[in-house]
Design brief:
2 strands; flat; mainly alpha; two-stranded antiparallel sheet
Amino acid sequence: MLAADRLIALALMGFSVIVMWYAQRLPVGWEAETGPGAGAFPFWLGLGMLLASGAILLRSFVTRPHSGETFIPDADAIPQVLGVVGLLLGAIALIPLLGAYIALMLFLLAYLRLMGGHGWLLTGILTLTTPVFLFFFFEVTLKILLPKGVTEPLFYPLYAMFF
């Protein structure tokens, strides 16, 4: 398992460096009229991934391996993994039709309630607040419009308020 941790950490570190290198082609700093440059978000995301992957790599050299540890998941984990993959594929398929925010809400609802077995209070709070936060982060702050599908007309009043 430590070998897998190291391999994945190194792969993510390499990917992070590539993301940061490509992000440098765009302005990374603060633009006077538009805010953060087009490369700012990918650059800082790449740096965060690089640091997190580096921490995982360092931890793998400090951690002592457990006896009998294998990389192959047990039989109970396979249906869970397939369920999450199915939910993700379903959410991705719904994005062009219903939009990113509704697809995300449906994914969170199914994942938290069905897969995670969490209560309705936590499920409701996360299902409602996460898309709202992402709307303000991407569309209002970064001015990156996400696909909305048939729900686009519902966003016109918000566009009028923020743009």
